Fold this protein.
Amino acid sequence: MIKEIDIEESLHRKDLFFIDVRSESEYEVDTIPGAINMPILNDSEREHVGYVYTQIDKDEAKKLGLKYASVKLVDFYEKAKNINKDNKNIALFCYRGGMRSNSVANVLSTMGINLFLIKGGYKGYRKYVLEKIPKYEGKYKYIVLHGYTGAGKTKILKELENLGKSVLDLESLAQNAGSVFGNIAFEGKSNSQKKFESLLLSRFESISDVNVFIESESKRVGKAVLPDFLFNDMEKGYHVLINTELDKRIENIVDDYISSTSYTKDTEIKDAIDKLRKNLGNEKVNMLIAELEKKNYPLIVKELMINYYDPLYKYSIEKLDKYDKVIKYSNAINVAIQLIEFVNSLSK
């Protein structure tokens, strides 16, 4: 049996398993958070069918689409059975809730699988996101963490989250650390604006506290641009300056950019350093690349901090006349505890 369900209801049900039947490139740009991708037509197949439809014959295109789709239906059925075994209900969607999702739904329904179709498909979901996000203006009081590169702000946010506090990690949502090296820590794939907004709304909807910890960011983080209201709400929040020794900052950066993932990043680091020739000069850049070949990461990080990042962010760090709190630290968990104490003091 097939039932239609609207976007808002589907997003607030815990028993649904979302399947996006659009092509892999459509899915990569954005999807409903948590959805898996099972394309009824992949990118090359979709392109072929589209060409036949517009340039040759519409009926032939429909037959071709059916041919491509038919070989995938067994996999859809097996996946659907396993999902049902986990006491989950399937919610299918394509772009508009049209032919692609309906064709899969009809076959699965014939095979005895009960499922839902998302009204309006992804297009309806995207409209929902754009309408819903602005409703979070002024809803939270942000505790904004400032500090030079490597001060450990992201680690502190993780410690706060581990302690049960509400955190909005914009770099994680954007999959970019907001700098010339920003996508390296996230294995080179920054999220699109659409995906960022989907994840942002999902995060907003999960936060129940009034006070939310967040890292200071510019208006743009990677490919993502923050909503105006969020940027303004951050400016109206409480501002905390995080200080630590240079050696600790170097350690944090090496952990975040080099040690945190399994794949080799030297090529990406070299490309990023190369982009700084105008800022640092050829001699300095050539020296850093030579040190990279020796894998002398701490020296590279130190040179970049002193000669590039610290001068670059000096103004943004010093532009506030007065911070609500300044914390000097050597251990991220101690900072998290001090921040919680600071927030608790605000309500007294």
The chain has a mean pLDDT of 89. The CA atoms of residues 168 and 203 lie 7 Å apart. The radius of gyration is 24 Å. DSSP finds 17 helices and twelve strands in the chain.
